[in-house]
Amino acid sequence: MSRIEDLAERYARHIAAPWQRTVSGAQRVVMVVYDKELERTLRARTLLFENATRAAGHDWREMDVTDAFARWLVNDEYREDYFASPEDIRLKLDAEFPAHLADRVRGELTGSAVTENTVTALLGVGSLFGLTRVSQLLKLVERDIRGRLVVFFPGQFEGNNYRLLDARDGWNYLAVPITHHTQND
Hints:
The chain is of the alpha/beta class.
């Protein structure tokens, strides 16, 4: 069995368990953690996770944020200037991009088709590396999670810390981790 199929099985066991409805937004997040080298394989196999979700009686929605930075930058009036002096974008990036991204994700989480029975899958968070922190995004949207938010996370989970793309700094978060090493799913 491949590592992605193993993760999908672990995810299936978790998502099929009865959901507590009174948990906080942070506890409604499920982090599917996989080796960064498996990004393309995971994307090709997301149907495994969707099928597991539907088999458990839940709805599935999928959102890809890979192009979020490009979409944000294309609407900026100074975009051409940033190519000439890329260091000038840092202040604006820190001040505006996280909110822009959160608004986009929030729109998916609160859409009219989303209920307390919906799983929203978030793909492409590796593309956020160096632009914003996944932890910051999750903090901004956690109150808007109606069902569950599944974040496909290329990186590591060790000692309750998540490390995107195996980067040096990580963060501790209340999400449920699904990893190759998950015990008692």
